[in-house]
Amino acid sequence: MLTVLNALQLVLYIALLALAGQGVLFVLAGDRRSSNFFYRTLQVVSMPFTALIRKATPRAVANRHVPLVTFLVLLVAYAVVTFEKIGLCVSLNMVGCR
Prior knowledge:
The chain is mostly helical. The chain is 76% helix and 0% strand. The model has no long low-confidence stretch (mean pLDDT 92).
């Protein structure tokens, strides 16, 4: 179970970093971000999560807000997985959690 939580935490972490990087490049590159190679690469990495949130949110949520909503949802999911991992490690008396 610890391996599953570690893998899930890693996937969420990578997606969070990709979305955070997109946010930074959004500010730095401005309107030219669509031609920025790194922005496009980070967009491809975060696309599965963004598409899933787009399908889960109502149409009232604008497309430009979906990455922010995705970031917040993934942040909450990361916190939940982290607390579950901590709970598991405490219940196992920290055996295998180092």
